[in-house]
Amino acid sequence: MTTRSARRIRRSLRATGAGVAALLALSGCSSDGSGDAGSSSEPSGTITVFAAASLQESFTKLGKTFEKRHPGTEVTFNFGGSDTLAASITSGAPADVFAAASTRTMETVTDQDATAGRPRTFVRNRLEIATLPGNPDRIDSLEDLTRPGLKVVLCDRTVPCGAAAQSALRTGGLRLTPVSYEEDVKSALTKVVLKEADAAVVYRTDVRAAGDKVEGVEFPEAAEAVNDYPIALLEDAPNPGAAGAFIDLVESAEGQKVLTAAGFLTP
C-alpha cells in the first residue's frame, strides 16, 4: 500500500468517526440539553509544530503565548532545515503543523496529500550578509564575498536559505565558493558567531536575533530572492483542533506583530 493510499484510508475512517461523534452529540443535546457547546472547542492537549529554523525565536514566543492563553495545552517544536522537516513529515513523522521557509518545500508535503487544506503564506523573509561585529573585513556588497581569502559560509543549496542565496548570486552574475555549506540558517550564522567564518548569507531575521554577536549588511540582489513562508495543518495531525488554533494565532494581528518585530515581512 502506498503512503498516499494509506492517508486516504485514514482520512475516510476519521470522517466516519467524526460523523458518529456528531450524531451522538446531537442525541445528547436533544435528550437533556445539558451539553456545554464551548467546552469541545477549547484547545487542549499537546501539539507538535515542525518549523523552519529561522522561525525559532518568533514561534517559541508564540508557543508560550498560546499555552498561557489555553491552560492545559503544550506546544512542542521541531526546528530545522525545511527540506529535512518535509522529508520527515512525508515519511510519517507525527506532527500537527508545518511552517516552511519556501513554497517549494511545502509542495513536497502537499504533493503527498499530507496537508489538510491549502497552505497559506503568513510571512516573507529577505537575505542579509552576517559579518563579524564591527565588519572588520569591510564587506559592503554581495560581490565583496568573492574576494580571495575571505571565509564565507552558505546554507546548503537544498534548503530555502541556500536556494535564495544562489538566486541572489545569479542575479548579481557572481560565482562564490564557500568554505562550507550548512544544513540550515542557524548553523550558517553560528559559524560567524564562533568566528569560524568571516561572513554568511542568512536571513535578516537571524541577524536581528543574534544581536551584537554579528553585524548585518544589506545588498540589493536580496530583493530578487525573497522567500514566502507557508503554514499548514497536516492531514494526519494528532490534535487538529488545537493545531488550528495555533495557526490562527500565528496569522492573527498579535502573531503578525511578533513576527514583524523579528524582521519578517508581511505577505
The percent range for strand residues is 15-25%
Overall shape: elongated
Order of helices and strands: HEHEHEHEEEHEHEHEEHH
From the N-terminal CA to the C-terminal CA, the straight-line distance is: 39 Å
Mean of the pLDDT scores? 88
Count the helices. How many? 9
Pfam family, one: SBP_bac_11
InterPro entries: ModA (IPR005950), ModA/WtpA (IPR050682)
Family: Belongs to the bacterial solute-binding protein ModA family.
Protein name: Molybdate-binding protein
Could you characterize the architecture of this molecule?
This protein is an alpha/beta fold and 267 residues long. Helices cover 41% and strands 19% of the residues. The strands form 2 sheets. Strands 2-1-3-10-4 form a 5-stranded mixed β-sheet. Strands 7-6-8-5-9 form a 5-stranded mixed β-sheet. Helix 3 (82-90) packs parallel to helix 4 (103-110). The two termini are 39 Å apart. Residues 1-30 form the signal peptide. This is Molybdate-binding protein. Pfam families: SBP_bac_11 (PF13531).
What are the main properties of this structure?
signal; alpha/beta; ModA; 9 helices; ModA/WtpA; Molybdate-binding protein; 267 residues
In short:
Helices cover 41% and strands 19% of the residues. By secondary structure, the chain is an alpha/beta fold.
